[in-house]
Automatic annotation (TrEMBL):
Role description: Converts 2,5-diamino-6-(ribosylamino)-4(3h)-pyrimidinone 5'-phosphate into 5-amino-6-(ribosylamino)-2,4(1h,3h)-pyrimidinedione 5'-phosphate.
Taxonomic classification: Bacteria, Pseudomonadati, Pseudomonadota, Alphaproteobacteria, Sphingomonadales
Pfam name, any one: RibD_C
SUPFAM superfamilies per record: Cytidine deaminase-like, Dihydrofolate reductase-like
Gene3D superfamilies (UniProt xref): Cytidine Deaminase, domain 2, Dihydrofolate Reductase, subunit A
Cofactor(s) this protein cannot do without: Zn(2+)
Domain of life: Bacteria
Domain CMP/dCMP-type deaminase: 1-118
Originating species: Sphingomonas spermidinifaciens
Stated name of the protein: Riboflavin biosynthesis protein RibD
E.C. code: 1.1.1.193, 3.5.4.26
Keyword presence, Lipid metabolism: no
Length: 313
């Protein structure tokens, strides 16, 4: 299942409205097929893995990060039916599919076909892997990651709003990798005016993974090639399941105050700015309200900087 989760990440940010799923087919202790959801959402991971496995799939075990779909589509057959037709002996899913067209039906169909099934292996990791799909299914909006680049004294920008560059090259490279994993990237009008950010992906081999640029602006106008929204509720209508909020202080505070941040990425640089811009009001009326909201998921060193990743409690 770990291998299936790892390859599922290859499709992250490119498969909406479908989730990015990974599938590994094993027989006799040997991997005979691997697949992940392709750009645009088809073919599905199971179809890719079965095509690679061929006849070796008969009697094998399929590890898949999401319950195989059970509904027919004009874009391809149901994966539960494909697995049954291929003659696999066992299917292990990390997570049940919340889509009402499949929820529990895919596993039940496999069981009815005489295939052994199990569900729940590494469920927490699968939920993180498919956070965008799950947010869209359950909340009706994209999964929102807020990126913050901070100085030691908590500054997100100089007093005049400039924020290029608080962090070093290693942290910036990691930020570009994060961009490649999102369909959408948003900044506020102040950041656009101060920094004129390109918001693209400048990593070798990933240049085509640049997310769609979105501007949060009360005026509702945006540069050519950008989308504009006037209010936070409009993120529900954006075309994608993963939204990265990159700046600035006002936009970050607005998303936090509205309770719309699902994940925090904090890059902390060993610098002091002094008279810096900070987040400002995020809606807290008592310090006690700040505790217990975030759970540390990852911490690492990137050059001279420190990265911390938090999920909502």
């Amino acid at each position: 299942m770990g291998a299936a989760l790892a390859i599922a990440a290859r499709g992250r940010g490119r498969t909406a409205p479908n989730p990015s799923v990974g599938c590994v087919i094993v027989t006799g202790g040997r991997v005979v097929g691997r697949g992940w959801t392709q750009p645009g959402g088809r073919p599905h991971a199971e179809a890719m893995a079965l095509a690679e496995a061929g006849e070796a799939a008969r009697g094998a075990t399929a590890y898949v990060t999401l319950e195989p779909c059970a509904h027919e589509s004009r874009r391809g057959p149901a994966c539960a039916d494909l697995l049954a037709a291929a003659g696999v002996a066992r299917v292990v899913a990390a997570l049940r599919d919340p889509d009402p067209r499949t929820d529990g039906v895919g596993l039940a169909r496999l069981t009815a076909a005489g295939i052994e099934t199990a569900c729940g292996q590494r469920e927490i990791d699968a939920r993180r892997s498919m956070a965008g799909f799950l947010a869209r299914q359950r909340l009706g909006r994209p999964h929102v990651t807020l990126k913050l680049a901070l100085s030691l004294d908590g500054g997100v920008a100089m007093g005049d709003g400039r924020s290029q560059w608080i962090t070093g090259p290693e942290a910036r490279a990691h930020a570009h990798l994060e961009r490649s994993r999102h369909e959408l990237i948003l900044v506020g009008a102040g950041t656009l005016a101060a920094d004129a950010p390109r918001l693209d992906v400048r990593l070798p081999g990933l240049e085509d993974r640049g997310p769609m640029r979105v501007l949060l602006s009360r005026r509702g106008d945006a540069p050519a090639g950008w989308l504009a929204i006037r209010e936070l509720g409009a993120i529900a209508d954006l075309p994608g399941d993963h939204l990265l909020v990159e700046g600035g202080a006002a936009a970050a505070a607005a998303f936090l105050s509205a309770g719309l941040v699902d994940r925090l990425i904090v890059y902390r640089a060993p610098i002091l700015i002094g008279a810096a811009r900070t987040l400002g009001d995020i809606g807290l009326t008592d310090l006690g309200q700040a505790h217990g909201r975030w759970v540390l998921e990852d911490r690492r060193t990137l050059g001279v900087d420190t990265l911390e990743v938090y999920g909502r409690a």
